[in-house]
Amino acid sequence: MSDYNMQILICGGTGCKASESEEIRNVFNDLLGEYLLEDEVQVVTTGCFGFCEKGPIIKVLPDNTFYVHVTPADVDEIIREHLVKGRQVERLLYRDPHSHEVIHDSKGMDFYKKQIRIALRNCGFIDPENIEEYIARDGYLALGRCLSEMTPEGVIDEIKKSGLRGRGGAGFPTGLKWEITSRSVADQKYVVCNADEGDPGAFMDRSILEGDPHSVIEAMTICGYCIGADKGLVYIRAEYPLAIQRLKVALDQARAYGLLGRNILGSTFGFDIELRYGAGAFVCGEETALIHSMEGSRGEPTVKPPFPAESGYLGKPTNVNNVETFANIPVIINKGAAWFSAIGTEKSKGTKVFALAGKINNVGLIEVPMGTTLREVVFDIGGGIKGGKKFKSVQTGGPSGGMLTTASLDTPIDYENLQAAGTMMGSGGMIVMDEDDCMVAIAKYYLEFTLEESCGKCTPCRIGNKRLFEILEKITAGNGKEEDIDKLRMLSHVIKDASLCGLGQSSPNPVLSTLAHFEDEYLAHIKQGRCPAGKCKALLKYVVVEDKCTGCTLCFRTCPVGAITGERRAPHFIDQALCIKCGICFEKCKFDAIELA
Amino acid sequence: MEIINLTIDNKPVVVKKGTTVLEAATSIGIHIPTLCYMKLEDLNIENRPGGCRVCVVEVKGRRNLAPACCTEATEGMEVNTHSIRAINARRTVMELILSDHPADCLVCPKSGNCDLQNMAHRMGIREIHYKGEQSSYRKDTSPAIIRDIDKCIMCRRCEMMCNEVQTVGVLSAINRGFNSVVAPAFEMNLDHSVCTYCGQCVAVCPTGALTEVDETGAVIRALSDPSKTVIVQTAPAVRAALGEEFGMEAGTLVTGKLVAALRRLGFDYVFDTDFAADLTIMEEGAELLNRLTRHLQGDPNVKLPILTSCCPAWVKFFEHQFPDLKDVPSTARSPQQMFGSIAKSYFAQQLGVRREDLVVVSIMPCVAKKYERGRDEFSVNNNPDVDYAITTRELAALIKISNIEFRALPNEEFDKPLGESTGAGVIFGTTGGVIEAAVRTAYEVYTGKELPRIDFHELRGMEGLRHATIDFNGLPLNIGIAHGLGNARRLLEDVRSGKSRFHAIEIMSCPGGCIGGGGQPYHHGNSEILVKRQQAIYREDSNKTIRKSHENPYIKKLYAEFLGAPLSEKSHHLLHTEYFDRTK
Q: Which residues pair with A65 in a beta bridge?
């Protein structure tokens, strides 16, 4: 690293890659040659920077200049101006949306200010395909320390003291899980990394594997050492090709460096990792379903106990942790449990990565200390609601979670508080909603997801969710009855109470949560036949305000189904029987003469 | 042994560690409803996916309800099986299942025998509060089994039978969520799959999703056709189970009433498959001795062990799964087909009727027999040796349709000549029986001496895999027995790898043998019924005066008048068959 005077870090995450970041790198390589700078400037493809809203992102080191929305056409200017003349290309710098001031260093941006990056520490800093860059940032130091200075019990103790809890959603204490698995007696044990990230909108696990695969490999190896396993498996969705490729490169490198295989770092401990591909079934994130899928069976959960720690993959004790959980491990070993547990709240230690999405200005991946308030996340880091609209709610926990409303804006985010608010941490998807989002439709959306992703094994989830969905369909179509509210609640409670696995047990949460916070919206649909957010098409009614209509005929001409009639210069009329509620007339009218009744 | 103390509905109960809440409750007379759960205790077969959630109970201190069937009792546990929370959840679950189930109970083939119907009745379901879309699938009709999977409730019993017990692997859950259902891969038809038609899926299906092809209408039509002579054969296992359909105790032998009922149904001759079983022993026994003698003489071309071939599902199984071994099983046809072949040749000649005018009906404990009778090699000029094969259950239906008061019937005798049989023929109905019958004859033929004893208890039982060595006058004959195709597979794999040390192996596809066949009265998960049927079979055997196949006077007569000797050319033509590689 140090042979070069300057470095260009180009985000190589899936998002930026989709916006031509690879082409940007190619142009850099070509042009640096032309400028005879190839020995001076190093170009590195890194993992995700997190600020996906502004991608493709490029960082120039050592001055830490942060360029946003870069295109291949900008490369020449960056080289000419910045690298050669030392002048930043101002038009590519980030502008604060409020003060409109240019901020050239990411450290000064609201998006990054409140973040603490532990799991994401290397994402956007190192070339994930170069093990030496990982090692240069203390990579494999923790593993070395564990193998040479610590007993497995000592490591487990350290993890327990750190207070780290599973980042996959349920928040089970990681150290305790390791301890239980370590106590199971068997000739073979397994370490499994759950990379079956499936919450809509969540992509932290993918980003970690794409940006810092070695941290997961190192952590799994440490886990193997602790529980007495010599084999690790990463269960990863096949639709994460980049993560898979980087993981494969990293595994090969780790083997070549003697960090996987027999006698790791001269110790008697041996460990290796294989990949297992999932077909993208959401339920395979549930650990027993994941294990059955790895075994080649249908991805379906089984009743626990037995827990995987006693009988998991191929009937052997198996420790399953998710990607983000693992990514925390090396840091905890290196910096100590005390350092880690100083971050966060009383029962939720460390940080949590969230995927910010929805109606928010700064869409992206963030990592904040546990205990950060929702307000800080949405308004400081997230930069507030898009288009100046009003904040309505945040959906966390994916299809198993629920809504956080304005009432929760100042609640510190941790496992307990989210649960108390009727939602859950989940894997960290945070979808922000504004006043234009219909809560009944949102509940329906999540339920539709669950409906498709349910394995179908148990009755409440297989049929119960279908019936819940049908009731919601009825309501959004304007055919709801008041008794449907009770039905939704009663059925939801039985589904939660009687389903086999976590998926079913949490599947009605979006319904219960929206009902708890927005029952009035349900009632508006049912009693008044009205969707307050104006989202449920069947309930919309576009009408012409006669006073305002000039008879310009624009609506008449643009209506795709010929539902609008009227003479020139005379008020027009919308035939409700023909109207398909597409809203084109509403958008096109220059005189605000069409409104939603 | 660790002891667990818990309370269920405030009653204290003490159980062994490892006992489920369901078992603990049953032990003190609390009957928690179940649907997907099934345990055939005597056969070591269990299905408890924990999927239906009908058995949920409330456990103090637990966040959610617990499925009683797969929750282990723990020390100090306080279980409430009828709290309002548990009852509400259970009834809601039941309503949900019913909301996705066709409400055609009145005309469903399973009506009266349906576990779902019974459970809905027991729970007092009077209204379905959650109505909505119902699953709709194509009905699949095969030669033996009908899949009407709109009625599938995903209990997975059939899947467990097909995969774990039979290792056939045709039925499994497909699709996801509301669309998930048990079906062959890609929803292909059963007759395009490697299904053996063993019918164990039918035997355990709690609803009408899997039933046998109904041939009772065709039989009634044949019986009412004056131009036809209609004869019937009844398999050994039928007499040990038919009574159950008329409310009689399991294990009641109803041979005499069975004959009387068949006569009242209008069959012109009532014969016994046991006769053909004796014939099978003559042929298969001769084949065994032939192979054995050649083997002992050092003939390198001879293949041992010899495998029995009476069971059509087993035949189809090895044709699909072990086609490389297709010259290992005996070439002897099954008793059903030997009967058909002899009936339409020897007996038709005696009667002086054309084979086309002779209708042969079989009463079988089996659904695969429906498939077997349709195999191309078992017909002459497109006229099948056996025209119709109906199950024990279908016969019961026929008797009911015909207004016959079964329990009041007198005992009657089978007709001659094809109704005369020995005890050896009867025991074909249970696992271990075919090989015991073969030993009784082969021993005497091989050694030329009379058997010192007739009962071979070492060959009997319910263990899935059994073996015994019988002393053939100094020659130790190693015998293997398997019932259930998964067990058969294990023996076959040994044969394939050359590790098998057996001279002869008996295989029956159904757990328990034919007494547990897919066409028998439903056992509803109670394996004690199978044990009682087995005992009845052995009782029938010991009641017979003649208990060795080669001593059956009508068999002797058949050979003298018609066939010549076992393995004669005529025998080969009429009583033996060939097997096909079905992997192609």
A: A60, A105
A460 interface with B at CB cutoff 8 Å: yes
The total of other beta-carbon atoms located within 10 Å of residue A567's CB is 10
Contacts of A490 in chain B (CB under 8 A): 92
Instruction: In whole angstroms, give the CA distance from residue B548 to residue B32.
Output: 48
Residues of chain A neighbouring B87 (CB-CB closer than 8 A): none
pLDDT (tens digit, 9 = 90+) per residue, B293-314? 999 999 988 888 999 999 999 9
Average the pLDDT over A161-169 and give the result: 93
Cβ neighbour number for residue B224 with a 10 Å cutoff: 10
pLDDT over threshold 80, residue B521: yes
Return the ∠ at Cα A100 (arms to A95 and A103), rounded to 5°: 40
Are B93 and A281 inside 8 Å of each other by CB? no
pLDDT band at A271; cut points 50, 70, 90: very high
| Chain A residue numbers touching B131 (CB-CB < 8 A) | 467
pLDDT band at B135 (very low <50, low <70, confident <90, very high): very high
The answer, yes or no, to whether residue A597 has pLDDT greater than 80, is no
DSSP label at B162?
I
- The label of the residue with tokens 């006693």 reads A310
Q: Do the Cβ atoms of B173 and A460 come within 8 Å?
A: no
Q: Does B301 contact chain A (CB < 8 Å)?
A: no
Least confident window among A105-119, A435-449, B216-230, B508-522? A105-119
Q: What is the mean pLDDT of residues A552-556?
A: 92
The residues in A 267-296 lying below 8 A from B, measured between CB atoms, are 281
Using CB atoms and an 8 Å cut-off, which of residues 458-487 of chain B contact chain A? none
Band (pLDDT 50/70/90 cuts) for residue A1 is very low
Q: Which CATH architecture has domain B279-334+421-575?
A: 3-Layer(aba) Sandwich (3.40)
pLDDT of residue A497: 97
pLDDT band with cut points at 50, 70 and 90 for residue A2 = low
Select from A456, A497, A500 the Cβ nearest to the Cβ of B175.
Answer: A456
CA distance A12 to A128: 9
Tell me which fold the domain B3-122 belongs to.
Answer: Ubiquitin-like (UB roll) (3.10.20)
Residues of A in contact with B181 (CB under 8 A): 456
Whether B3-122 and B279-334+421-575 share one fold: the answer is no
Domain covering B140-212: architecture: 2-Layer Sandwich (3.30)
Please, is B85 exposed, middle or buried when counting C-beta atoms within 10 Å of its C-beta (0-12, 13-18, 19+)?
A: middle
User: Contact A494/B64, CB-based, under 8 Å?
Assistant: no
Cα(B371)–Cα(B389) distance, integer angstroms: 9
- Model confidence band, residue B317 (pLDDT cutoffs 50, 70, 90): very high
ipTM over 0.85: yes
By Cβ distance, the residue of A305, A456, A467 closest to B132 is: A467
Residue pair A134/A216 in contact (Cβ under 8 Å)? The answer is no
Is B327 part of the contact surface with chain A (CB cutoff 8 Å)?
no
Helix runs in B266-356, H state only = 273-296, 312-321, 335-342, 348-351
Return the axis-axis angle of helices B392-401 and B216-223, rounded to nearest 10°: 50
| 8 Å CB contact of A459 and B96 | yes
Chain A residues lying within 8 Å of B70, measured CB to CB: 303
Is residue B105 packed enough to be buried (19+ CB in 10 Å), middle (13-18) or exposed (0-12)?
middle
Report yes or no: A456 at the B interface, CB cutoff 8 Å: yes
Domains of chain A: 6-111 (3.40.30.10), 131-340 (3.40.50.11540), 351-434 (3.10.20.600), 439-527 (1.20.1440.230), 540-596 (3.30.70.20)
Q: Where are the domains of chain B?
A: 3-122, 140-212, 279-334+421-575
